[in-house]
């Protein structure tokens, strides 16, 4: 990232290639449907715009997801925001490509539905921690909340998910 | 699940490797059943959550990002495009006005009239905006409200989705309307994969619409749902006359998108060519256009343009809520209403199959 901050287009291209898929999936897990790639692209554009603000004291992934989270928040604020969708039925387009066991596919659908029922605050900690692989401290940095709050939100989210999935 | 030991709150952090004193907790759980259960439960839940696979990117994603970054780097901004865009818009408006004037003068006598591309695009866009404005909160369209019959309610939601998904261009609002329609349609899917009421008509149109939507907006339609719908299409009993062309299109599209369950042979869409475009029939128009698009040559192009000119001239232009739609003034209008006429007419203007 430091090379990219100095203006190296090659270094930035490496960042895009390395983080494009996790980023698109971040937006998908957060609830985006058909505009995941648009949101990821906007994140990379902002990353490029703010590249000189990156300080090596912070983890790069925290910096990236901090931007991504703002892109997601802005999407919600914009006048042309999409109405809230019933996310119960959403699931990953690649399920059938990757899963051939009906039971496993069913479990994935249950998880997607349960995730869709979480409040935005609980959903984002779960997405960042479980799916994006960020540590609790990184999640705290991205969301600018105390570490203890991350821990309690994850506990609350896990309890809600467990209850929801057990019911299905 | 409730755990009485207060340390069970550390189970999630322990499982994810985020607990500062994990060694201490490991010693604790050796003697604490509550915490052992909490850890096992957390592990099981995390495992389940990770069964959801990642979505794939479209092939040119990195290229598109690279182009945007290059634009950003060169300092080209939206405002830098502003003046050229205005000039292009003005030129298009003049061209459109000229074409429209000519069309208006000659259309009554000349069926092979060419129509400006800009006018066709604007017409498409107004039709799609009409769908956006008239969609219900649950993602459906109200058949009766727009002159259709209640028993075709489901198909009359699938048709607008098909129009949105096959449009040459779409705005974010139109995409959002499509998303809502997809969710509504998927809610109706049964265990046997069938959509709507399960009739061949409902199922064929809805499957075709979902296939187009899923192909156009990756991730918008779960593939397992499409798999089930396509499989049900294959296993359907003898289809009726009304559903046959929709089913044929759906099977053809499914096969081209790689569904192995769809037959690989050709599915010719049997249509009766419209001999006189002055006889308004939205169904015939649409299937004629579908056939003409599949055989591009100067003659079919001329016929296409004549049909499109005819359609554009029928579109409602007013300040009321019907603006952008087509009056359902053909033999099927009393069944399908304005949703049917507008969906079929707008799809006849599309360049996509």
Identify the quaternary structure here. Answer: heterodimer
**Shape designation of chain A:** globular
Distance between the termini of chain B: 53 Å
Q: What structural category do the secondary elements of chain A indicate? A: mainly alpha
Please work out how many helical segments of chain A DSSP would assign. Answer: 9
- Strand content range of chain B: under 5%
Secondary-structure content class of chain B:
mainly alpha
Low-confidence blocks of residues of chain B: 76-114, 264-278
Number of helices of chain B: 14
Helix content of chain B: 55-70%
What proportion strand of chain A?
under 5%
Number-wise, the strands of chain A total 0
Inertia-based shape of chain B: elongated
Element-by-element helix/strand order of chain A: HHHHHHHHH
Attribute tags:
heterodimer; A: 168 residues; B: 353 residues; mainly alpha; 14 helices
Helices and strands, with pairings:
The complex is a heterodimer of chains A (168) and B (353).
Chain A: H1 2-5, H2 9-30, H3 36-49, H4 60-77, H5 95-98, H6 102-116, H7 120-131, H8 136-143, H9 147-167
Helix pairs in contact in A: 2-3, 3-4, 4-8, 6-9, 7-9, 8-9
Chain B: H1 11-15, H2 22-29, H3 33-49, H4 61-73, H5 82-106, H6 117-134, H7 155-165, H8 172-187, H9 200-216, H10 223-234, H11 244-256, H12 282-294, H13 298-314, H14 333-349
Helix pairs in contact in B: 6-14, 7-8, 7-9, 7-14, 9-10, 9-11, 12-13, 12-14
Notes on the protein architecture:
The complex is a heterodimer of chains A (168) and B (353). Chain A has 168 residues and is mostly helical. The longest helix of chain A is centred in the N-terminal third of the chain and has 22 residues. In chain B, helix 6 packs across helix 14, helix 7 packs parallel to helix 14 and helix 9 packs antiparallel against helix 10. Chains A and B meet through helix 2, helix 3, helix 5, helix 6 and helix 7 of A and helix 3, helix 4, helix 8 and helix 10 of B.
Task: Offer a concise description of the structure.
The complex is a heterodimer of chains A (about 170) and B (about 350). Chain A is mainly alpha-helical and about 170 residues long. Chain A has helices spanning about 1-5, 10-30, 35-50, 60-75, 95-100, 100-115, 120-130, 135-145, 145-165.
């Amino acid at each position: 990232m430091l090379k990219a901050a100095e203006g190296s287009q090659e270094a930035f291209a490496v960042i895009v290639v390395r983080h494009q898929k996790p980023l698109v999936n971040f937006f998908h897990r957060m609830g985006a449907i058909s505009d995941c790639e648009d949101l990821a692209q906007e994140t990379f554009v902002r990353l490029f715009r703010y590249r000189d603000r990156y300080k090596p004291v912070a983890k790069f992934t925290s910096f990236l997801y901090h931007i991504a989270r703002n892109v997601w928040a802005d999407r919600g604020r914009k006048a042309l925001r999409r109405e809230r969708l019933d996310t119960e039925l959403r699931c990953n387009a690649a399920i059938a490509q990757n899963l051939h066991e009906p039971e496993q596919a069913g479990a994935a659908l249950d998880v997607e539905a349960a995730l869709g029922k979480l409040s935005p605050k609980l959903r984002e900690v779960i997405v960042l921690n479980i799916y994006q692989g960020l540590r609790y401290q990184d999640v705290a940095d991205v969301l600018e909340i105390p570490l203890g709050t991350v821990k309690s939100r994850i506990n609350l989210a896990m309890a809600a998910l467990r209850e929801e999935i057990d019911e299905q | 699940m409730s755990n009485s030991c207060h340390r069970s709150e550390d189970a999630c952090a322990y499982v994810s490797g985020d607990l500062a004193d994990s060694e201490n907790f490991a010693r604790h759980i050796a003697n604490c059943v509550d915490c052992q259960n909490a850890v096992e439960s957390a592990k099981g839940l995390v495992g389940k959550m990770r069964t959801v696979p990642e979505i794939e990117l479209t092939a040119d994603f990195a290229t598109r990002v690279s182009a945007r970054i290059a634009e950003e780097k060169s300092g080209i901004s939206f405002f830098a495009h502003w003046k050229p865009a205005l000039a292009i818009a003005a030129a298009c408006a003049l061209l459109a006005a000229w074409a429209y004037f000519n069309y208006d003068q000659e259309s009554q006598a000349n069926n092979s009239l060419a129509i400006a591309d800009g006018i066709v695009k604007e017409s498409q866009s107004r039709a799609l905006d009409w769908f956006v404005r008239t969609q219900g909160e649950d993602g459906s369209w109200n058949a009766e409200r727009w002159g259709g019959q209640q028993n075709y309610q489901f198909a009359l939601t699938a048709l607008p989705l098909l129009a949105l998904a096959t449009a040459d261009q779409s705005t974010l609002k139109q995409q959002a309307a499509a998303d809502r329609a997809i969710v509504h349609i998927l809610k109706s899917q049964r265990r046997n994969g069938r959509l709507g009421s399960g009739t061949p008509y409902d199922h064929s149109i809805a499957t075709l619409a979902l296939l187009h939507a899923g192909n156009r907006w990756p991730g918008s339609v779960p593939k397992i749902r499409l798999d089930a719908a396509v499989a049900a299409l294959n296993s359907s009993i003898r289809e009726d006359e009304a559903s046959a062309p929709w089913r044929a299109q759906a099977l053809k599209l499914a096969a081209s998108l790689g569904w192995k369950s769809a037959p690989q042979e050709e599915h010719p869409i049997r249509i009766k060519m419209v001999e006189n475009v002055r006889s308004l029939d939205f169904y015939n128009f649409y299937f004629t256009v579908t056939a003409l698009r599949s055989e591009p040559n100067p003659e079919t192009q001329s016929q296409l343009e004549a049909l499109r000119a005819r359609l554009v001239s029928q579109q409602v232009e007013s300040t009321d809520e019907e603006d952008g739609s087509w009056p359902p003034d053909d033999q099927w209008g009393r069944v399908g209403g304005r949703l049917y006429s507008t969906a079929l007419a707008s799809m006849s203007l599309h360049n996509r199959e």
